[in-house]
Amino acid sequence: MNNRFVVIDIETTGQSVAQGDRIIEIGAVVIEDEEAVESFCTLVNPERSIPPFIEELTGISDEMVKGAPTFHQCIPELMSMLEGGVFVAHNVHFDLSFLQKLLEHEGYGPLLVPIIDTVELSRILLPTEESYKLSALTEQLGLEHENPHRADSDAKVTADLLLLLLQKLRQLPLMTLQQLELLSDSWISDMGPILRQLIEKKMHDHAREEEVFDIYRQLAIRKPVKMKPQEEEIITTTDTFQSFKDRITQEGGSLSKAFLTYEWRQGQLKMMEVVHEAFSNNEHVLIEAGTGTGKSLAYLLPAAYFAHMEKAPVVISTQTIPLQSQLLERDIPLLQKILPFPINVALLKGRNHYLSLWKFEQALARGCEQDSYDTILAKAAILVWLTETERGDREELNLPTGPGSFWATVESDGVSSLGKYDPWFSRCFYQRARTQAAKADLIITNHALLCTDMVQKNGLLPSFKQAVIDEAHHFEEVASDHLGKQTDYYSLYYFIQRLGYGDKEGLLDRMFQLAAKEDVKLTVDEEKVKTILQECQLELDELFRMLHRYVLQNRSSSKSDVGRLSYRYESFREQGTLWEAILESGMRVHLMMKEGIKKLQLVLTCFHDVYDQLSFFDQGLLTDAKGVIDRLQEEENNLYELLLESDPNAVYWIEIEPRGAKNATFLYSRPIEVGESLADRFFATKKSVVLTSATLSIKGSFDYQMERLGLHDFGVRTESIPSPFSYKEQARLLLPTDIPAIKDVSEEEYAQEVAIKIWRIADCSSGRILVLFTSYEMLKQVYQYVKDLSMDDSLALIGQGITSGSRAKLMKAFKLHEKAILFGTSSFWEGIDLPGNELRCLVIVRLPFAPPDQPLLKAKLDKAEEEGKNPFRHISLPQAIIRFKQGFGRLIRTSQDKGSVFVLDKRIATTRYGRAFLESLPDVPVYKGTLESLIEAHKEWM
């Protein structure tokens, strides 16, 4: 193994040597025997001007490089350092190829050195990190990075990263190193010699590995940490909940001891009592708990008490992963700390969230000759992750997911499971999660699994009669998704491709090869099945292209259309020759698919008599094939029901990508109302369900939610628990009167006016501003206009869908700047936390009415009208008010927060229904006036 590593970073004038770009700075660090023994850094005269963007990025100017050596003069020292070393860089292809081309330009031969790419190595050895950019990694790993985008600082931090990665590599068990070594020939990095040396060393000293790792069937998996049993105080069945609660919440009780500064909150105590009474009296209850109530603890404490005393599990369901993470990482540990008895808590998600160990073993056994580079890296990353994870949950892992990804081939699923015959059954992550859930007092899950459990015959969750549904304002929407159907071209295409035909070897080829090997007589002709599959795919392609064309013909796009176009249809009422051709094509697909699936199932049947004699690998092949065939049949059934059947109680629509592939077409159906189904299939089967959120009521009434959820016949109790915050003292609602009415101007004029208003608010305010939009198109227009108005760089502009990155990354960037505007839509209306100085000003551009042409909403509006109700007041207005309350709630997050909400939609002050928005908010002072007068008032107050 080469123990000399030369870490290089270069700053350049651009990306292309051929177009005249040159190096402006070189940084290098030499590592020998795990220590930095030499460093080198120099500015380089590029003999051309430095572009303004590069100067801004690096801080290197033409003046600074004027007297610096040229690259030609730097070559001898650089070549001397590289001699006998491994060339290391973060994204090595760029640095190495740029240097190679410059050396060639200077008359030197190619650099023949082994290389290591720390991006690649990080993806393998740090599989749970959020990002693999150098700046992100240094922050995530706590590495010191003084001067990003300067070669000396970047080289130093890359050297620190390399040492950390090599240290991580040495800590891996022998089995994992051996598996990585088999994959390493396909990596960019020349890691083979390093891995072989580590393996050689481990061969003589790996005895203690089995204390930490479960070594089984060529894989090393971290053993679950056994929790020490909690010491239990005595709590008798004669203890009332009141006395139990008082022991914990009174001054000097375990709750106050668990916090450095515990705030006694009347609302939280009230909510505890309401939840306990609901469980005790077998009643359903809706609780609106204002921001700051501490509702998580308010339902967890009585849920834990009930579960412990009654020996009955309570399910806690959330909509979002952040809340689930908060419960598991913050609230549950606190609960376990303050309770006088032990409590078992389990997390259970949908099956496809968990890794299937037997599928992964199969994927490794197949080798990597036909694998893409990303698949090989995914295999390596999972090998490392298995030495760390206890849950096997994909949320921990930074890998692409979805159809076509490697994860889709190794995720756990019911249809291709070996069940008790699986040699991994006792170690299966999903089974482990289910076993823990079966023993748990509190089961944490999500709305999606709760609804899946509701519609499936075989329960996924252990039997339960009590539940808490947090973020309950989303429950109807999730239930609708799970009671509906959907499919698309790619989902069908993916499963046909998995089976395989033509040049690419798939499951079908491998089954026929297995039949030949085991001398199994097949009653099905291989070429006939492949021909059917190929014809199916061609017909599917044409069908989805026709659907795409049909939408374009019947739904003309407009400037306001962004992303997908949707078209609501009723299959047997559509007119025209194109739709007739679509129905004929749909029937041909159905008949061909039916024949193809029947033949594929016959192939499987032929192995029945020899199945027990087959190797585990071959049994796995057949089980995998059965899973894919079942999923293909499921997707085809969905397609048949969506195109060739019709339910009068459902709405059907097509979505297309107008600028995407011609077969990028998606079919959906949803029940128009889910209340009746929820009443019969969920609420009637439970003794007590607590539904809670900060936004459930409208002007103090819960009628809207009760109707949508089917709760009117259950004698439901409702409670409004006000926020402990003093909105009178902490917030202002500012309504500018000099904004044009939306209906009086064009959308472009309105966007320009909004941009000017936002820019004035930002110009006159200190700190950060969050601007919430209802339309992405409007967001883009306003962002550009504000950018044009901002003449200097003192104001950071961060736009969802414009600035790259996830919501979490955009939030992080927003917090980094003292003065910034974050432009957000959709997901930014809720679930984000910006306490204290992180947010002092919130701008709501328009009242959040959903577009009335959304198919499901339009169907609900039509149904309301048929029933003699006012569709706007019955459906559109309540939805918008709940959304508005969510957006308003982004501002005040703690008792110390202070700030203003500007609403740039005149309708809140000029229409009768606008009062309903104001009356649904906490008691916050409302001011109207010109924008300038409101800005002055805001500045004085702040």
TrEMBL record:
Instruction: Name the protein family.
Output: Belongs to the helicase family. DinG subfamily. Type 2 sub-subfamily.
Q: Which Pfam families match?
A: DEAD, Helicase_C_2, RNase_T
Q: Name a GO molecular-function annotation.
A: ATP binding
What reactions does this protein catalyze? ATP + H2O = ADP + phosphate + H(+)
Q: Which gene encodes it?
A: dinG
Q: Which organism is it from?
A: Halalkalibacterium halodurans (strain ATCC BAA-125 / DSM 18197 / FERM 7344 / JCM 9153 / C-125)
Motif DEAH box: residue span?
Answer: 470-473
Keyword check for Membrane: no
Q: What is this protein called?
A: 3'-5' exonuclease DinG
Q: Which GO terms describe its biological process?
A: DNA replication
Organism lineage string: Bacteria, Bacillati, Bacillota, Bacilli, Bacillales
What are the binding positions for ATP in this chain?
A: A289, G290, T291, G292, T293, G294, K295, S296
Against SUPFAM superfamilies, the record matches this protein to: P-loop containing nucleoside triphosphate hydrolases, Ribonuclease H-like
Cofactors: [4Fe-4S] cluster
- The record's EC number reads 3.1.-.-
The record describes the protein's role as: 3'-5' exonuclease.
Q: Which UniProt keywords apply?
A: ATP-binding, Exonuclease, Helicase, Hydrolase, Nuclease, Nucleotide-binding
Q: Which residues form the Helicase ATP-binding domain?
A: 254-526
